[in-house]
Write a sequence for this structure.
């Protein structure tokens, strides 16, 4: 009884959704049926599957009969109405297939199928708008991402190159996949969700990709647009706030023990940076300005970018291993400050993945110190490219952020 009621109700819901869609388009006469028809199709599929649960021969026969009727209907739609769409026919076949599914599979699968049909049948206009925004390069980018994440990663071996060094092809490629995923999400948000976003939004999304590169771009732009200079400075600080969240996400992926130890510190650092940025904005009391060509949407999955990251990752693996073995904790502390003057992501991921002979506290301190050094580098870039007036704001803001960072190093 429960299965029968589920099939009846769900089939009726699908039929009602089809009636609503065709009613909105004023073409109800162009479909073979709606609410009652779909309900009967669902009941028919359930009854035929129930009568022969072993081989489903009756169900297959009923399906062939239904396909024949739908094919005749489709023929006249093409001939008389020039209507080539087959969405309603496919939905009818899915409705007919719910019977065997509810007999053989858990009920949540039936619910998932029905919800998917209801949602996707209502989103035609949205999909059209999305497809209009895509171009050929976007699908190539998506294909690259699927290849590096879904095809290459499972095939890469997980055996170390050197017995004493926990560096494997799998770990190298996993690091590339994680960074590429974060960058790709930031790229999609910037291009399709916040395409006409404000300067502040550009800083936030840029911080997900690279806070250092975003700082340089925003600082240069502020020199050209001095009227909105404070918004650019706030956006730079927001990019740093997002850097903390990005690194925290990387820690969560690669080192759960470290995440449990430092997550609160990183959340506070991100909030403190955001508070500084908000203070700059509200003190200025200026409306947000739309981003007008702040930065081009660059492909985050370029081969050159992946090659540079992989090279740095491998290099830092050997350097960190040699420094820790030769100089211990002192050497790692010095190295963390030096690395902050470069791209810190390869060093940090290697530190989170590697099994070095140091405690979790030392890893946490090295991470925070590398970030301090990197913030100093961004402050230098910002002051150099933005000019004297902007430098006063940047120095004041970054002093607070770096000071909080130093306090957390001392606490750890």
């Amino acid at each position: 009884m429960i299965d029968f009621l589920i099939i009846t109700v769900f089939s009726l819901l699908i039929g009602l959704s089809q009636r609503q869609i065709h009613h909105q388009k004023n073409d109800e006469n162009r479909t073979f049926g709606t609410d009652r028809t779909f309900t009967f199709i669902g009941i028919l599929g359930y009854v035929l599957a129930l009568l022969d649960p072993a081989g489903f021969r009756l169900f297959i026969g009923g399906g062939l009969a239904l396909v024949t009727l739908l094919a005749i209907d489709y023929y006249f739609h093409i001939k008389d109405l020039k209507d080539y769409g087959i969405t309603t026919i496919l939905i009818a076949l899915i409705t007919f297939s719910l019977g065997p599914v509810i007999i053989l599979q858990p009920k949540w699968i039936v619910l998932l199928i029905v919800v998917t049909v209801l949602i996707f049948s209502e989103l035609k206009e949205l999909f059209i708008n999305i497809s209009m925004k895509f171009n050929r390069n976007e699908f190539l980018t998506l294909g690259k991402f699927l290849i590096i994440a879904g095809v290459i990663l499972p095939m890469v071996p997980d055996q170390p190159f050197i017995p004493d060094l926990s560096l494997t092809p799998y770990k190298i490629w996993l690091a590339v996949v994680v960074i590429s995923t974060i960058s790709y999400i930031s790229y999609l948000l910037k291009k399709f969700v916040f395409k006409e976003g404000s300067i502040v939004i550009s800083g936030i999304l840029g911080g997900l990709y690279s806070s250092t590169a975003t700082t340089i771009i925003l600082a240069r732009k502020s020199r050209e647009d001095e009227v909105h200079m404070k918004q650019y400075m706030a956006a730079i600080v927001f990019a740093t706030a997002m850097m903390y969240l990005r690194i925290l996400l990387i820690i969560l992926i690669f080192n759960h023990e470290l995440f449990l130890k430092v997550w609160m510190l990183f959340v506070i650092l991100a909030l403190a940076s955001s508070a500084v940025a908000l203070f700059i904005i509200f003190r200025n009391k200026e409306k947000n300005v739309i981003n007008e060509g702040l930065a081009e949407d660059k492909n985050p999955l370029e081969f050159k970018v992946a090659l540079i990251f992989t090279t740095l990752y491998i290099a830092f693996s050997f350097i960190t291993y040699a420094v820790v073995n030769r100089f211990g904790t002192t050497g790692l502390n010095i190295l963390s400050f030096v690395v902050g003057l470069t791209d810190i992501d390869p060093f940090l991921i290697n530190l989170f993945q590697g099994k070095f002979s140091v405690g979790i506290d030392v890893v946490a301190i090295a991470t925070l110190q590398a970030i301090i050094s990197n913030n100093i580098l961004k402050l230098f870039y910002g002051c150099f490219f933005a000019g004297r007036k902007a430098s006063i704001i940047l120095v004041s803001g970054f002093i607070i952020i770096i000071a909080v960072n130093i306090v957390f190093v001392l606490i750890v």
Remarks:
- The chain has two domains: 2-129, 135-411.
